[in-house]
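ERR on first pass: missing label on line 2. Operator R.T. fixed the label and resubmitted. Corrected input:
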Amino acid sequence: MKRRAFIKNTAATSSLLTFGGLSLTSFDSVDSIKKLTILHTNDTHSHIDPFPADDPRNPNQAGAARRATVIDKIRKEEDNVLLLDAGDIFQGTPYFNYYGGELEFKIMSMMQYDLATLGNHDFDNGIDGFYSQLPHAKFDFVSANYDFKNTILDGIVKPYKTFKKAGLKIGVFGLGVELEGLVDKKLYKETVYNNPVDITKDIVRQLKEVEKCDLIICLSHLGFKYKSEPNKICDVLLAQQTKDIDLIIGGHTHTFLDKPVIEKNTDGKDVLINQVGCYGINLGRIDFYFSKDEKYADQTKNIVI
Amino acid sequence: MRVKVKKINAFSAYFVILLTFISLVSCKSKSYYNYEVIGSKININEKNDTDAKIEKFIAPYRTHITKDLDSVLAYCPETLEKSNGKWETNIGSFLANITSNLANPIFEKRTDKSIDICLLNHGGIRSIIPKGNVTTRTAYNVMPFENSVIVVGLSGLKIKELADYFIKERKPHPLHGLKICVNKNLEITKLEINNEPIDNSRIYYVATSDYLANGGDNMTFFVESQEKYDLDYKIRNLLIDYFNKVDTLEMYSEKILIEDN
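pass 2 clean. output:
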């Protein structure tokens, strides 16, 4: 990247000196290639310590302090990194029962998470329990389909957030699973669940047309897919029934995908869905390459998975 | 000469405008095209180094929890498990009895009523209680969920539905306070609470978990009740309180299903 920055600066200087010719080339070719690295987790469920070596299911897997090393290494190699979480940060080990999520949020802040959405278990100490831990989180939460208007989270959890990385604008919005029947009402209180597909259509229009985002990511806690309930809204159906989403980062169903899944949206374009199991056993990584070269304007993107 | 200079100025002015226009077209209106995506998954395991700063941050919390979880609270004289009986198990009787015993004073204080029955679910017992020392960790292992005690008012008729459910399920759900007498075909011949036959019109108070009170495990007989008292008492905390209270766990063997001869 240093080399690219150098070329860009040189080109800009020469164009100032000589007007035509060079100035036009400075907008194209080499220096306009941008790389964005998305790192993500889901359903970490308070699994701060690694699984012990004698664990029957996941021996020696996971561990927050190990994940931090991996993330650090990637940050040293890449200039443009976004670190995201798709919910259910809380509940699963005594760390949560004893400290109510304080450690989870503090450790994620140390790893410099950029954004997360809420999972159903993030309500386990009530919406007030979640709210009281927020001062420990140096990152924001987004949710577009939970209406928090009549709750303590009103104005705190926004529908989406945009990021600028290397001249690219990235819009990330959140979606949560239906709470009724899953979480006790006394915990989520007046939180209203809205239809994820309807909400997504509105939010995506906003991100595309008003915010002019180059990339749209959905942080979803809807679940990957429900075999026994094929019509229940999930990431696969969301991808198929909407448009303009580039990537859905999923959670809730603890689905260990071998690799990201590709679905076609209503425009016939590819949507990537990824989910990396649970407990911090895996870290997902998706690299996006961008160019201003017109030759890519009508070309389908090349997805390597 | 003057005219010539003007001409040059006019020309450069024109050129600047043209250049601005070109830059506007070629730069401002032009967007980025995402032409390639590469997805991968990184497994986190013992081969990855531990971040020293985060490890240092976690250590004191871990030490505190471990010490707290593993300090001995009581002694268990025999292993309590959930697979040692057809209709009743020793861990089921134990849990239903102590839940009823510890929840009742709270319920009485708040409502002036008493708990008649306690029903929990077999699936909710997540571990055995081994013979030997009992710690806070034991309570976490048996009851990792955040379920709390709810007392539900049910009519005698609904208690009959509860008994039907118990027989139909053929699972030793933890139950205390109800006697179900059946004939050879497992048809109910008599139901007793507090050694008295049940009264269809009377309201009985059943201690259960919030999960079951909302119809979990198909316990639909709880759902419609208009009388539900949330004690805001987590079952795990109730267990920990009990372990703290006694030196040796009391053993219960309550016969629920009685077959007529």
